[in-house]
Write a structure and sequence with these properties.
348 residues; 11 helices; two-stranded antiparallel sheet; mainly alpha
Length: 348
């Protein structure tokens, strides 16, 4: 319980000045039309990407491509469900313009939304790191793992990522950290307080997200360097990668850039705020209006990841890449027309 808080108040209510926001200010900050439009665009984008993915998976694909498509399908499904669940809660709260205390006095909805926000926030970052690891092994160690069952392993990895993100999101319900109503009173997220549990959970969330982004950056850089060396190396002229390898790396790089640009500001802000000395949040649970607004802005930037991810896949396909860079198709055709050695000619 917060200091100076009412005994009848739920654990998710901080004694802040959120109740002092006028109706006009709340309507300007929390527009139901903006929330509904944002959610509709995101849902349409992810549904379109799922349709394109379904068509791509219906045709014959190599095992590596099938595994990558399984990861992409898991990522798009995660973004779709995240927008659907969080968008429905936020849009309903914006449309009602009622205080959270009147709608959810026991804080059950707040706890649910906090878990959902952490879960759908970490999943894209963890999936991006898993995809980078899969492509790293596929490019640098192509013979180190069997090709059979790759999509099955990919879906098992996606399920493991979902389980890990859900376990982390449930920690505040078990006593590590707290979910509280955030400015302007229409959403719930982790608490940026100075309590040991709040600091530990905030750092865990921020560091895990930053490590996922850093791992993706390192592995993708090595994968691209290896792919370029194979593509231009004289000794490996007969083993130049197929254009599907270039397509997968282009899509993975796009996903990494989008995740880094959208999530890094929020992750850095969370780590800086919980480690600030003196603490940014007072013992009574009050956070400065500037910090509250910064958190809201960074959160909105992070949610763009769920809208941009499907467009990375839609736009960075081979058909689109060939139109933008015709030489890619010409090189692929030249490699396919190169005379191949007869079977067994290199054996002794």
């Amino acid at each position: 319980m917060w200091a100076n808080a009412s005994a009848s108040a739920g654990p998710c209510f901080r004694p802040t000045d959120i109740t002092n926001i006028t109706a006009e200010e709340r309507r300007a900050i929390a527009s139901p039309w903006f929330a509904a439009s944002f959610c509709a665009v995101g849902l349409a984008s992810n549904l379109l990407a799922l349709c394109v993915l379904a068509r791509a998976r219906s045709g014959p694909t190599p095992p590596a491509r099938s595994s990558f498509l399984a990861f992409l399908c898991g990522l798009v499904l995660t973004d779709l469900l995240g927008l659907l669940v969080t968008g429905a809660i936020v849009a309903a709260r914006h449309a009602g313009l009622r205080e959270w205390r009147a709608v959810d006095p026991a804080c059950r909805l707040c706890a649910f939304m906090g878990v959902v926000m952490v879960f759908f926030g970490l999943c894209p970052l963890l999936l991006g790191a898993a995809m980078a690891s899969e492509r790293f092994l596929g490019i640098t160690r192509p013979f180190s793992r069997p090709a059979a069952g790759s999509p099955r392993r990919a879906w098992a990895t996606v399920a493991l990522v979902w389980a890990a993100a859900l376990a982390l999101g449930l920690l505040p319900l078990l006593g590590l950290g707290r979910y509280t109503v955030q400015y302007p009173g229409s959403w719930c997220f982790l608490t940026l307080g100075a309590e040991p549990g709040d600091v530990a959970f905030g750092l865990l969330f921020a560091l895990l997200g930053c490590l996922s982004v850093a791992l993706s950056l390192v592995l993708n850089t090595v994968s691209v360097a290896t792919l370029c060396r194979v593509y231009h190396g004289r000794a490996a002229a007969r083993q130049r990668p197929r254009d599907c390898e270039v397509e997968m790396m282009a899509q993975l790089l796009g996903i990494m850039v989008v995740a880094t640009a959208c999530w890094t500001p929020l992750l850095v802000f969370i780590a800086q705020t919980v480690l600030q000395d003196p603490p940014a949040m007072s013992p009574t649970g009050q956070l400065s209006r500037a910090s509250e607004r910064q958190l809201l802005i960074y959160l909105r930037v992070a949610t763009w990841n769920q809208i941009l991810d499907p467009w990375v896949y839609i736009l960075f396909r081979r058909a689109v890449l060939r139109r933008l860079h015709p030489r890619l198709s010409a090189r692929a055709g030249a490699v396919s027309l190169r005379p191949q050695p007869r079977a067994g000619s290199g054996r002794h």
